[in-house]
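hey
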């Protein structure tokens, strides 16, 4: 029988990874769109465990949403 990590431990790990990713992105002033794309590309690595791939996909989607929310809004043009 294979030993699996319980869901609570996976949730805690994912929370830590989200916080770490956000902290590193902020500290390095990373381009969140590029970071999202890199995480998404990493999630396609078929040598990773399925859970790891899902976690990377989740991180990529989170960075993508954050990048969209922080994107400057276009200024209204005066007529």
């Amino acid at each position: 029988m294979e030993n699996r990590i319980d869901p609570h431990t996976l949730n805690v790990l994912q929370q830590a990874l989200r916080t770490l990713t956000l902290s590193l992105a902020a500290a390095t002033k990373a381009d969140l769109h590029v970071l999202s794309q890199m995480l998404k590309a990493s999630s396609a690595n078929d040598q990773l465990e399925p859970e790891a791939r899902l976690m990377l996909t989740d991180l990529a989607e989170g960075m993508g949403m954050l990048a969209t929310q922080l994107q400057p809004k276009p200024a209204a043009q005066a007529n």
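Residues 7-28 form the longest helix (22 residues). The chain has a mean pLDDT of 89.
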